[in-house]
Design goal:
Elements (H helix, E strand, L loop, with lengths): L1 E2 L2 E2 L24 H10 L5 H17 L1 H4 L11 H18 L10 E3 L2 E8 L5 E2 L7 E8 L4 E8 L16 E2 L2 H6 L1 E9 L10 H7 L6 H11 L5 E2 H7 L6 H6 L2 H6 L3 E4 L3 H8 L9 E5 L9
Parallel strand pairs: 4-6
Antiparallel strand pairs: 1-2, 3-4, 5-8, 6-7, 7-9, 10-12, 11-12
Helix pairs in contact: 2-4, 6-7
């Protein structure tokens, strides 16, 4: 397999990484360390779900909606460097989600084996020198389609692009190596949709305007997003730069009741249970405005 002048070596060949000591390239099924790490990863319930939450937290961190009012990573006001920084933040979110320690020289250890955590919002990863020929979890975040997927791969130097790499020696993983000599951890998995992205431009302009006040704008938002789960991050984004937006959101129950809507907050178990009767799952920091049979007074 070739790309330009690159000809990939195959399992059974000697790796070109002389600095790492002479070693034979192994297919994933023959790599005992890879299999041990894979077994530990698969001991977690819902790997895809853990990654979904970690990525969503990373995106929220980069957007910093509570300060900036931004809610869409694909917006022109988000610098390309900020998009790329999602991958760097994700490393720490994954460690937290999987309860893993930060252990240099790579990112962590699984089954006692060093593992690097890599992510990209593009099509490839930059593998640093210290991670070459080491085990890597490589995550691809498809922002345009709102989805992600991950692989476990040993990033042999023989399977990397770009000759000697950039100034730091970082090199990209060859697509053929990813497709043939890695192990998928999970297939394409949807990312949560920020409800604000479902608003029309006119609606978004009203909800995110500086005027009128927060309570009027929250009322408009919940009317526009009737029946949709609204996470805490959306509340703080709409109230960006203002004092105590969560309290302001709680204050609009009577306003919404006049519109025939009942505002439920997942902080309260009875309201979570009420949402569940309408086949809606509320997390502890989620909100939803519902049109109840019999009206808000029966909620």
């Amino acid at each position: 397999m070739s790309r330009g002048r690159l000809i990939l070596q195959e399992p059974g060949d000697i790796c070109s990484n002389a600095e790492g000591g002479e070693h034979v390239l192994q297919a994933p099924g023959e790599d005992t360390e890879l299999q041990a790490v894979l077994a530990e990863l698969r001991s977690y319930d819902d790997i895809a779900g853990l990654y979904t939450r970690a990525i969503a937290n990373s995106v929220d961190y980069v957007l910093d909606g509570a300060r900036t009012g931004r809610y869409n990573l694909l917006s022109p006001d988000v610098h390309p460097g900020e998009k790329a920084s999602v991958g760097a933040k994700l490393e720490y979110e994954v460690l937290r989600a999987f309860c893993l320690p930060k252990v240099p020289p790579l990112d962590t250890v699984l089954a006692g084996i060093p593992v690097d955590i890599k992510a990209t919002v593009g099509a490839n990863w930059t593998i640093p020198v210290e991670a070459q020929c080491q085990l890597c979890i490589c995550t691809q975040i498809g922002l345009g389609r709102g989805r992600h997927r991950s692989w476990l791969v040993r990033a042999h130097r023989s399977w990397l692009y770009r000759g000697t790499g950039n100034r730091d020696g970082k090199r990209g993983l060859a697509a053929h190596a990813r497709e043939h000599w890695s192990v998928p951890l999970y297939d394409w998995t949807p990312l949560p949709v920020n409800p604000l992205t479902l608003l029309t431009p006119e609606q978004a302009g009203k909800v995110l305007a500086k005027r009128p006040g927060q309570e009027q704008r929250f009322t408009m938002m919940f009317n526009y997003l009737e029946g949709l789960v609204v996470p805490r991050s959306v509340i703080t984004t709409v109230g960006a730069g203002n004092h105590d937006p969560l309290r302001r959101a709680r204050n609009i129950r009577a306003r919404l009741a006049r519109d025939g809507l009942t505002l439920l907050c997942g902080k309260f178990p009875d309201q979570r249970d009420l949402a569940a009767t309408h086949k809606i799952t509320l997390g502890p920091e989620d909100w939803v405005a519902l049109r109840m049979e019999g009206g808000p007074e029966h909620a």
